[in-house]
Amino acid sequence: MTTFPLRFRSIPANTTKAELSELLSVSPECISLARTEWKGDSLTATVTFKKEKLAKSFLKNNDVLIGGERLLVDDHFLSLTVLSSHDDDVVEYDLVNRECYRICLCLLYSIIAVHGLNGHAFNTWAAAGGTMWLRDFLPEHFQKARILTYGYNSNVRNSDAISDTTEFAKQLLVFLVDNRQSKVRP
After folding, report:
1. Which of 100-114, 121-135, 140-154, 159-173 has the lowest mean pLDDT?
2. Which one of 4, 93, 165, 168 counts the least CB within 10 Å of its CB?
């Protein structure tokens, strides 16, 4: 069975999986909802659609609103996508640098899955029925981990691309360094 995964970003932080499920007309089991720390107080969802027409309608119209906020919708999953995270964060204020950052007392490490050449940040890790093992199984075995997948344009078939794997690795490292907010968190 073919499924159609989409990523929804910039979801207001108070949104629940049940609300998103109702809005998108999918079962809650087909959704991951995780905090996206480098985008402020927002969430990211991955949603597996069983109907291509429904998925394409969200991609084409790109007019999904929650609480007056327009969500960003894509199917390419480029850059980092948080699949699982914990909400047990404590907000701290750094008086010296005058900035807020989060310290998570529950997370011990981050797991970042990186697909290979001609791969896809979501589909590489998904079974034909839509089960995505990084999202659907790994969190229960690694409860103290934040789980992410990293997507990059890895198409080399019929491509004039001049980037190599070293460039892809550098892009990931730069993104991680630039977006790390906590000095304590992994």
Report:
1. 100-114
2. 93
**Terminal Cα distance for the chain, rounded:** 37
Burial code of 88-126, b = ≥16 C-beta within 10 A, e = fewer?
A: ebeeeeeeeeeeebeebeebeeebebbbeeeebbbebbb
Express each pLDDT in 23-70 by its tens digit: 999 998 889 998 876 556 789 999 999 999 999 999 988 778 888 889
Place of tokens 């992410």: 148
Rg of the chain, C-alpha, whole Å:
17
Is residue 106 predicted with pLDDT exceeding 50?
yes
Name every residue whose Cβ is closer than 8 Å to that of residue 88 and which is 6 or more positions away in sequence.
Answer: 104, 105, 106
CATH numbers and ranges of domains, the chain: 4-179 (3.30.70.330)
What is the per-residue pLDDT for 92?
A: 46
Burial class, 45, CB count within 10 angstroms (exposed 0-12 / middle 13-18 / buried 19+) = buried
